[in-house]
Design goal:
Layout: E1 5-10, E2 26-29, E3 33-34, E4 56-60, H1 61-71, E5 84-87, E6 98-101, E7 104-111, H2 116-122, H3 127-130, E8 136-142, E9 144-146, E10 151-154
Parallel strand pairs: 4-5
Antiparallel strand pairs: 1-5, 1-10, 2-3, 2-9, 4-8, 6-7, 6-10, 7-8
Length: 162
């Protein structure tokens, strides 16, 4: 698998249901989640599901463009309710695979499906537009800082300079 993508934006929410914050960077903590994020403290809306899958979540920017074009639904990067918005990253192909976001090592665990909570928080009807393309839940294997522009590559490849 040869490809290279980038991080477009980074996000977290301090409390369940709170608007997503878009800082200049986030700190991914191995085995825990994003520093300051509700799920790293087990306080997110879906924390009851347990396990590693809510440590960090990714969403493709290309999906936002597709749903705007095909479904006339405008959803901003922070409205996806995920931690990382990517470009050029084949998230569906990263299930059960290890990959790097800059120096951070992630492992894809499960594809995310949209839920009614996303409609509630955004005030938009987005569920049908996002079925089977709502992002990827990942485990953080090696932590570190993630900023917009970070290169995303398969774990077994070396990132090319921009």
């Amino acid at each position: 698998m040869t490809w290279q993508g980038r991080i477009e934006s980074v996000h977290y929410a301090a409390d369940a249901g709170a608007p997503m914050t878009t800082p200049q960077s986030i700190l991914a903590i191995a085995g825990i989640g994003i520093e300051g994020d509700r799920y790293s403290r087990g306080e997110g809306t879906f924390s009851y599901t347990g396990g590693a899958r809510r440590q960090i979540t990714l969403f493709e920017a290309e999906v936002l463009e597709t749903i705007a074009r095909d479904h006339n639904v405008q959803l901003a990067n922070d409205e996806c309710r995920t931690n990382l918005v990517t470009r050029g990253v084949p998230l569906t192909h990263l299930m059960f695979r290890t990959f790097r976001v800059g120096d951070v090592l992630l492992h894809g665990l499960k594809l995310n499906e949209p839920c009614a909570r996303l409609n509630e928080v955004t005030g938009k009807r987005v569920i049908k537009a996002l079925i089977h393309r709502c992002g990827l839940f990942c485990e953080i294997l090696e932590g570190g800082e993630i900023r917009p522009g970070a290169v995303v590559t398969p774990a077994n490849s070396v990132a090319k300079s921009a």
